[in-house]
Amino acid sequence: MRTLAEPILKVEGLHAGYDGIPVVFGVSLEVMPGELVAIVGANGAGKTTTMRTICGLTRPLQGRIVFAGTDISGLPAHRILKLGISYVPEGRRLFAKLSVEKNLALGAYAEKAPAEIRRRQEEVLEIFPLLRERARQTAETLSGGEQQMLAIARGLMSRPRLLMLDEMSLGLMPSLAEKMMETVVAVNRAGATVLLVEQMVQETLEIAHRGYVIQNGRIVQSGAARDLLDSETVRKAYLGM
Amino acid sequence: METLIQVLIDGLLSGMVYALVAAGLCIIWGVMDVINFAHGEYLMVGMYVSYWLGFLAHVDPLVSVLASGAFVFLLGALTYKLIIRYTIRRPGLVALLATFGLAMFLKNLCMNRFSPNFRILSDTWLGGKTFLVGSLILPVPQLAAGILSLVTIGLLYALINGTRFGWAVQATAMDREAAELMGINTERIYVLIFGIGGACVGFAGGIMPSYLAVHPEVGSMFGLIAFVCVAMGGFGSIPGAFLAGLLVGIVEALAGFYIAPVFKYIAVFGLYLAVVFLRPKGIFGW
Fold first, then answer.
1. How far apart are CA B59 and CA B210, in angstroms?
2. Phi, psi (5° rounding) for residue A116?
3. What is the CATH number of domain B2-278?
4. The whole model's pTM is what?
5. How far apart are the first and last CA of chain B?
6. What is the nearest CA distance from A76 to chain B, expressed in angstroms?
């Protein structure tokens, strides 16, 4: 019998790295439509490299990445975006000298119709009302939390089928980080599939459906987020319990 | 007093052309951090295109401008595709030396094909015409070149600041990877920007045979002045390059007239030294 849902993203035996030197060794993972999946692990474990390779910024050395039935391994990032993957990178990478509005408009660069772009902008401003007041300010004048909101908002402007968020809590004070988590849950409930990379293991696994634990470039454990939270290894290695 | 105004007018008119040549260099520099050493030679190629169209087919430089712009656009795009693309992730010196090589190649190719002779296009529509305002003399060919430069710079500025394509160019300049993540084909932006930078200098070169002799060395000094303008205006700033172009034109004319023609470039480069000494990032630099 055919399963009801095919994974929207399927990564098989991915080796990836920089200048031909791998830092990710044979990572395999799956994301089902509508899921919120977390990749957790320590700094330098290969989380960001995995994300960069999925979205096309880094070429895979080996392995296959299939998105919505299309093999996207090695495609340039701008084509992968058009297929429906939006990656909000670590460090936000906003266009610092451009206004909030222009940053958002660029998020929808693949869409040509001005009316549609405006509609999407209204939508994301509903989620992040604070950005509305800042629309004409340049991105560099925003606070850290506002910048992170803008980064996520910009990532949503392409109406992605899969939203990938990398270390969005980094550099934010805990209350703001928590608020970001809530926003991600809201975005996911609204229908977006989310793949999340985080160092805040506990908080992330609390909101995710499923999780993968990555260590030294390899997936060492995976399963329902609840089970991972209860697992001995995770508790010892990441939660200090 | 009238002499001074006349000198200022002459300076402004040549300054506008410098500004256009500089704007082309500036946009390439600003977007991809590549110093195109062959920029002056692009101008020379644009002039030859216009010259030969005029000489062989009796097309006036005013019309040939379009052909020169298109030709140098293609030359720029090809330069990116065949040379710059392979240097972009290497140290900055690699691209610089590669374009220096291209400059030598273009110059010597023209020397070999067209001889080092100075070639003058006669019987152009504007050639030798002047326009009198009171006792002031406005040379029509230079006036046309100045207006063309102003219009082109205005269009370039509007393109970069007022269109989605322009925002994408700015985004690519600020963070190429992040631009890719927005769905911007940054490779295409690079090709187009090299082309557009070429087209600017192509336009300038296209109209110049109305009043200037064409020879293989003609671009070198313009290229050098364009560097000065871009560095003085602040790397990547089109208004900066524009202002610096005008300034250079005026200083050159003043020094040439009131001191001696041989001193005009000493004044220009002296000004450059003074500006970068006081404001190392240029007038509009950040």
1. 11
2. -65, -40
3. 1.10.3470
4. 0.93
5. 38
6. 8
